[in-house]
Amino acid sequence: MLESTLTDLECTRCGKLYDTEQIQTHCPCGGPLYPRYDLEAAASAWNQGKGLAGRPQGFWRYADLLPVRDPENRLNLGEGGTPLLRAQRTAERVGVSRLLVKDEGLNPTGSFKARGLCAAVSKAKELGVTELAIPTAGNAGGAMAAYAARGGMSATVYMPSDTCVEFIDECRGLGAEVILVEGLITDAGAAMVKDGKERDFFTIATLKEPYRVEGKKTLGLELAEQLDWQLPDAIIYPTGGGTGLLGMWKAFAELEAMGCIGSHRPRMISVQTEGCAPIVRAFHAGEEYAEMWDNAETLASGLRVPAAFADREILMVLRESDGDAIAVSDAELLEATYQVGADEGIYTAPESGATIAAVRKLVEEGRLDPSGTIVSFFTGSAYKYVSGMKQGVV
Ligand SMILES: *Cc1c(COP(=O)(O)O)cnc(C)c1O
Fold first, then answer.
1. What's the rounded Cα separation, in Å, for the pair 248 and 255?
2. Share of the chain residues as helix, strand and coil, in percent rounded to the nearest 5
3. Does residue 246 contact residue 317 with C-beta atoms inside 8 Å?
4. Which of 78, 100, 247, 282 has the fewest other C-beta atoms within 10 Å?
5. Rounded to whole angstroms, what are the CA distances from 116 to 14, 38, 209, 215, 355?
6. Measured from the CB, is residue 141 less than 6 Å from ligand 1?
């Protein structure tokens, strides 16, 4: 049985350490808390990757680098272990030689949110939590509802009232209480905080809770393993709250410390939409933090995040990796989404289409080397966007 090598929680901004046996949120200084591990112990078990051979497939294959100690608390709905697919027709269409897509739509509840919520809900269960709440633009709510149900816990989901019906029905179908809030995910979050003063639930908002990022870290572990420990030249990531981007970056640091990879890092490239691009704007303005985006609007609901709690950390990763940030329009991302479906047989979420529209633009503008290996994250399936995508078709 794989043992978690979790040792501490550390504030990413001030370095203060926190106890992992207590329920934690974030540091009073405003920094997210990152779990730390005994990487020496993990390194000897991994043996530069060769030690993974006999392990079960999927998410919990990496249990020694995940925070949940008791295997009984490792909730499992078949998350992770998603395919990394060559997308040759799409590559030719956008003018690059080697494009791989990580198809996260195959996760439970149809998006990569399953990874973050699997880790966070499992750890909350381990710490004795029985009631959970989350603010969501859509997919995170469904994923939390699923894992809460799996763990025998209650779930309350706060969503913008104009969220597409499929997301709302999914949460209800998974036993969650859904509270619809006028406005955006940030307003949903504010309503949750207000209700939380009277209700005894634990809230799992992006990076205000320490373990969602750990689940997303498995994106990076899995990608590295699938590429035989040779990281790609660029990673194209549709960015909302940024957990996936930060999780992957953390994965690469841990893998290097464990001797599985060297110091080469992919260029990390954030994609947002023209209707909500706070990170893109801050990146190009050279800002340390991203200002809130007014009147955010896009049918790619996972990208309708006007303010990211970990904006500073996201911007740091983009800069450290010599990365980039780019916005595409809803018309561009929708066209790319349908084109990918026809070219590759992947019925993928509009956020995924956004990454393809972005690659095309970056290559056209000379901002991305078309001869390298490019990995694009297809973060969800299209099934929950049917009514939204219909409205978007003009
Ligand atoms: C949440 C979400 C995103 C954005 O992910 P972050 O980790 O919050 O940046 C992208 N695509 C889909 C489908 C999502 O649900």
1. 10
2. 45, 20, 40
3. yes
4. 78
5. 24, 21, 11, 4, 21
6. no
Q: What is the residue with the minimal CA distance to atom 3 of ligand 1?
A: 302
User: What does each C-alpha distance from 274 to 217, 264, 308, 341, 367 come to in angstroms?
Assistant: 27, 31, 16, 23, 18
Q: What is the pLDDT of residues 186-230, one digit of tens each?
A: 999 999 999 999 999 999 988 789 999 999 999 999 999 999 999
- pTM over 0.90? The answer is yes
Residues 316, 331 contacting (CB under 8 angstroms): no
Q: Whose CA is closest to 208, among 25, 21, 16?
A: 25
List the residue whose alpha carbon is closest to atom 10 of ligand 1.
302
Written as six digits, the tokens of 308 are 């990211």
Exposure of 365 by Cβ count < 10 A (0-12 exposed, 13-18 middle, 19+ buried)? exposed
Residue with tokens 């880790």: 119
* Angle ∠(302,307,313) on CA atoms, nearest 5: 95
Cα 177 to Cα 295: distance, rounded to the nearest angstrom? 27
User: Could you give the CA distance from residue 195 to residue 193 in angstroms, rounded to a whole number?
Assistant: 6
Q: Report the DSSP beta bridge partners of residue 34.
A: 10
Q: Which amino acid is present at 90? A: T
Ligand 1 contacts CB of residue 380 (under 6 A): yes
> Buried b vs exposed e over 294-327: b needs ≥16 C-beta within 10 Å?
eebebbbbbbbbbbbbbbbbbbebbeebebbbbb
Residue 394, pLDDT score = 38
Do residues 12 and 34 lie in contact, with contact meaning Cβ atoms separated by under 8 Å?
yes
Distances (CA, A) of 203 to 3, 273, 285: 26, 27, 33
What DSSP element (H or E) covers 153?
A: none
